[in-house]
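Hi all, long-time lurker, first post. I run a small reading group and we've been trying to get comfortable going from sequence to structure in the token notation. Rather than ask abstract questions, I figured I'd post a concrete chain and ask someone more experienced to write out its structure so we can walk through it together at our next meeting. Sequence below, copied exactly:
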Amino acid sequence: MDYEALLDEEVKAFIAKTASCYPERGEPPTISQIREDYEAMCAQFSAPYPEGLKVADAVIEVPSLPPISLRWYQPQGASKLPALIYFHGGGFVMGGLESHDSICADLAFDAGLEVMAVDYRLAPEHLFPAALNDVAAAVEYFCAHQPDRPFLLAGDSAGAWLAARLSHQLAASEKPLLGQLLIYPTLGGDVDSGSYLVHADAPMLTRQDVLWYSRQFWGTENPELQDGPLVQKDFSALPPTLIFAASCDPLCDDGPAYAAKIKAAGGRAHCFIEEGLIHGYLRGRKEGPKIKDSFTRMVQAACALSQSNWPYDL
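-- Answer (accepted) --
Happy to help. Here is the structure in token form:
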């Protein structure tokens, strides 16, 4: 694939800035080094908090689980509105509250919604279902302490997987889940077809990267054991779902495939295919107008879901 022709100068500059954050070591990095490099890279794209945004950390204690760290982003007046619960990306291996701090702050401020960011245990030290158990416990905590308050689930990449998978768990419950916002999600699609092959060597994320992260998360290469959102049996009770997929991303096809299953089951779902963008582009929302425009659409999507407004696919 000729990415030199497919990508514009803004996106190429974002890719180059990202690549510049990773040192040449001459040998494969350790898990610890992978995490350190990722955090350093994310810090290069961070921005000061928007004026007037309140940010507070909390640690919750849950029976049978380690303590779970949360970070609240509170725009003025947002406490009376639905909340957005956000799960960070990083391939299930990297990331945390710091890596996505600036993203969550901007999302909260621009959408005018209170955001609760959730930390979770990382692979390979903690295999599935550790991360899913952590985010599920955080949502239970939210619902117990703010009963009847509506909320959205959101996340990028691996965090989007967690949001979607948790939405399936909550489908039979009476919790006031208004919708889910999934950003360039990995959802368990067929790695031997479609975008996984067309964009196998895409910048920022390759097919081999996807397979490596999957092995860390599941502890196996057996796809029959990988219980992802796309292989669930029932899609009929899922909340309205908005998905942003990057066209130059091996994961691109997962988004429309998931949306199609929800719609086939009678639900509401829409997938935006963001042309000329690559995996991880959310960090570059301040680097140029193309990525910023996509972030603006994400903010609009969060607002629409929080208001139970559906102007899509009409």
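A couple of things your group might point at:
The chain has one domain: 3-306.
The CA atoms of residues 244 and 297 lie 9 Å apart.
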